[in-house]
Amino acid sequence: MGHRRGHPGGRRQHRLTGKTPRELTLAIAEGIGQINLESAEEAEMLSAIAHGLGRAVPVALRVNPDVDARTHAKITTGRSENKFGVDIALAPALYARIATLPGLSPKGLAVHIGSQITEGVGAFAAAYRRLGELVVALRAQGLPVTRVDCGGGLGISYRDETPPSPAAFAGAIRAGLGHLDLELMVEPGRWIAGPAGVLLASVLLFYLGLAFAYFVLLPAMFAFLTTTVPEGVVMTTDISAYLSFVLVMGLASGIAFEVPVAVLVAMIFMHLKYDWRLLYFLLIPVCIMAVMMMVVLLPDTPVKKAYQSMARVRAALPSARRR
């Protein structure tokens, strides 16, 4: 996109986790300003491509600082168990190795600890402090470190979140890296683009699965609705509650059918004569059905919550279709 928009190659960087040889070749040919490396294997691949082209490409090593961003598990990327970046303990040796590879010109470090971070700047501060310590250690080995890509992650308010301000974010960067005479880059993509518009889609179909309520959207294919629709209706429901609802309603329906059948059978076998055993046929199904109805009707039971959740989903559907 940067190429199509006419942005100079030297002002662009390639930071995606998966980089194809074709993309890397094009980036080198365009004179890209920086490529962020995710691993030793990627460094070797890029070195072979750049050396084959007779070029030296500026690179930064993405470091995993082992910091918990306290955001959603699927978008946190700065803990040691996450698959992004090189463990900070291994970074000095790999950075030194990169400096010896043909076709690579190491310029600095990169970090990105997660997205949609809203619980203060403590995680940012910890990550940049650790990165600053790494810069000092690398320079002590005589290795060049002139820039740091600070990544992004600055959250925005979708509902009632209170994300940190850009000034607080900048303060965390300044505290950890401001004294090291570095060229700094930031990637506040969500903070820039998130509040700038809305996503519009047509609702084609709505249906309930065993674990979730589904919408079929155009042009969004099939997707879970993991956010909320108007009136705050959460479109996912707990599977245990949903299955409990199905089970109880099935039993209740079966018992409702059993009562008249039981009475009929009792009348036949007792020849329409009174017998105390007739009470078993009448009272036992009635008692079981009463218990089931109490489970359904009493508040704060999984079945009750599941029923209410599905009722709100169905009530919200017409308004969603209008949108």
Features:
12 strands, TIM Barrel, elongated, 3-stranded antiparallel β-sheet, 323 residues, alpha/beta, 9 helices, 7-stranded parallel β-sheet, 15% strand, disordered C terminus
Topology, pairings included?
Blueprint: E1 13-14, H1 21-29, E2 34-37, H2 40-53, E3 57-64, E4 86-87, H3 91-98, E5 104-110, H4 122-140, E6 147-149, H5 166-177, E7 183-185, H6 189-193, E8 202-208, E9 213-218, E10 221-224, E11 228-229, E12 233-234, H7 239-269, H8 278-297, H9 302-322
Characterization of the model:
- With 323 residues, the protein is of the alpha/beta class.
- It folds into three domains: 9-196, Alpha-Beta Barrel (TIM Barrel), CATH 3.20.20.10; 202-234, no CATH class; 239-314.
- The protein has helices at residues 21-29, 40-53, 91-98, 122-140, 166-177, 189-193, 239-269, 278-297, 302-322; strands at residues 13-14, 34-37, 57-64, 86-87, 104-110, 147-149, 183-185, 202-208, 213-218, 221-224, 228-229, 233-234.
- Helix 7 runs antiparallel to helix 8 (278-297) and helix 7 crosses helix 9.
- It is elongated.
- The protein starts with 12 loop residues before the first strand and ends with a helix.
